[in-house]
């Protein structure tokens, strides 16, 4: 049995993370914090906008741990031995280079008819375009459903071209039948 939900994104954190799923009519966020999971459903018909922007603190993720590991490596190199210091210096520089190579982190806001909520949709901004394209395609597919009228409408011909026959003159046959039965 296949699930109607398709996983489109995962954003991890130290205490859990958020997984995003997409179905035909809704976007589902499963936010895990330690051992509890909180589900939030966003119906596609209610979505107004999804905005993803570069987080202003993404540089701190590269600079602070990289600098701390490099300083620790320099201290170890001076006071303990050069091998341990070189390892920590290498790890600090590798951390900073990896963060710069992965690119800026992202923050996002989902706005719907009832309000807005800040939930991470993607970890990095470079992946945002692909996820937003999937959501956009699902929204377009859900809103392109054509509705057929339940009651047939009268023809849009001018009055002079319509027949005056009681069989085809009215779009509401029940009214015509009621007026024909009241012959006194």
Overall description:
By secondary structure, the chain is an alpha+beta fold. The chain has two domains: 6-55 and 104-141, Roll (PH-domain like); 58-101. Helix content is 37%, strand content 26%. The protein is built from four helices and seven strands. The chain has helices spanning 58-79, 82-102, 128-143, 173-181, and strands at 6-12, 16-22, 26-33, 36-43, 47-54, 106-112, 115-117. The strands form two sheets. Strands 1-2-3-4 form a four-stranded antiparallel beta sheet, with helices on one face. Strands 5-6-7 form a three-stranded antiparallel beta sheet, with no helix packed on it. β3 (26-33) and β4 (36-43) form a beta hairpin. α1 packs antiparallel against α2 (82-102). The longest helix is centred in the middle third of the chain and has 22 residues, at 58-79.
Brief synopsis:
The protein is an alpha+beta fold and 184 residues long.
Largest sheet: 4 strands, antiparallel
Strand percentage, roughly?
A: 25-35%
Order of helices and strands: EEEEEHHEEHH
CATH first level of the largest domain: Mainly Beta
CATH structural architecture of the largest domain: Roll
- Indicate the overall shape: elongated
Averaging pLDDT over every residue, what do you get? 78
Care to count the β-strands?
7
Helix content: 25-40%
Provide the domain count: 2
Task: Spell out the CATH superfamily of the largest domain.
Answer: Pleckstrin-homology domain (PH domain)/Phosphotyrosine-binding domain (PTB)
How many separate helices?
Answer: 4
Q: What Rg do the Cα atoms give?
A: 31 Å
Cα end-to-end separation = 67 Å
The CATH topology assignment of the largest domain is PH-domain like
Strand order of the largest sheet: 1-2-3-4
Stretches with pLDDT under 50, minimum 5 residues: 160-184
Structural class: alpha+beta
């Amino acid at each position: 049995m296949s699930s109607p939900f398709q996983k489109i994104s995962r954003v991890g954190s130290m205490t859990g993370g958020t997984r995003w799923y997409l179905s035909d009519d809704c976007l589902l966020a499963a936010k895990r914090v330690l051992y509890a999971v909180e589900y939030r459903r966003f119906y596609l018909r209610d979505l107004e906008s999804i905005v993803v922007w570069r987080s202003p603190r993404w540089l701190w993720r590269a600079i602070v741990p990289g600098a701390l590991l490099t300083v620790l490596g320099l201290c170890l190199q001076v006071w303990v031995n050069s091998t341990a210091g070189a390892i920590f210096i290498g790890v600090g520089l590798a951390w900073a280079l990896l963060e710069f190579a992965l690119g800026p982190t992202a923050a996002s806001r989902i706005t719907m008819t009832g309000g807005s909520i800040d939930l991470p949709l993607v970890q990095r901004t470079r992946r945002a375009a692909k996820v937003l394209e999937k959501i956009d395609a699902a929204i377009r597919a859900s809103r392109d459903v054509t509705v057929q009228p339940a009651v047939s409408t009268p023809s849009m011909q001018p009055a002079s071209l319509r027949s005056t026959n009681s069989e085809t003159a009215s779009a509401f046959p029940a009214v015509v039948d009621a007026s024909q039965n009241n012959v006194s």
